[in-house]
Design goal:
By secondary structure, the chain is α+β, with helices and mostly antiparallel strands. The protein is 16% helix and 33% strand. Strand 14 (187-192) and strand 15 form a beta hairpin.
Length: 203
């Protein structure tokens, strides 16, 4: 299984999308051991004291593909979930300063909490609402209409470089506003189209 993510992929104003599309796409990866599916997550205090949350829609690849075309790309998606892309910001800052890879900032155990999957056929891919509440307070929300690079764009881009295989997961970007720091004891709830799918605590 590959777990991939795309950075900086949402806007607050639809008029910004054509210009933002000209920017280079940024893809990163997480190991399978970073997944925490529908369970509480241990705050990784032994490695970081600055943990940043970003809510994201996660798509699952349903069939193998290489050099996938835009017209066919969405047919490679089998299911969708909602998850959190955690970043150890202090580790990331050090990695950037020393020009080292990001793996330890993005790929520690529990860095990818995620809900169970739903069939992609349940959704209109261009109009999916998703949100994150922390301790009952709305922190992030957006709609897939505000994506700079939509699901198909992401699949086309990745498949130029690596073969996508059944079970691969792609974190598709966080809303442009609202990401921030998470703390031990916080209660996170993530929804798609108003349906609560992920409900866990940092312990």
């Amino acid at each position: 299984m590959k777990i991939l993510g795309i950075g900086s992929n949402y806007v607050t104003d639809l008029k910004e999308i054509p210009e933002k599309k000209k920017n280079k796409k940024f893809i990163f990866s997480k190991p399978e051991s970073s997944l925490a599916v529908n369970c509480d997550v241990v705050y990784p205090s032994e490695i970081t004291n600055q943990l940043i949350y970003e809510v994201e829609l996660v798509i699952k690849i349903g069939k193998e593909g290489k050099n996938i075309t835009k017209e066919n790309a969405n047919a490679y998606i089998s299911e969708i979930a909602v998850g959190i892309d955690y970043t150890a910001k202090d580790i990331l800052a050090d990695a950037r300063e020393t020009k080292h890879p990001w793996e330890f900032a993005k790929g520690f155990d529990g860095a990818a909490p995620m809900s169970n999957f739903k069939p992609i056929s349940n959704y209109n891919l261009g109009d999916i609402n998703f949100d994150l509440k922390i301790n009952g307070e709305l922190k992030q929300e957006s709609n897939t209409a505000y994506m700079i690079h939509d699901f198909a764009d992401i699949i086309v881009f990745i498949s130029k470089y690596m073969t996508l295989q059944p079970g691969d997961l792609i974190f598709t970007g966080t809303p442009a506003l609202g990401k921030g720091e998470i703390f031990k004891g916080d209660h996170l709830q993530c929804s798609i189209n108003g349906e609560l799918l992920l409900d866990f605590k940092m312990i």
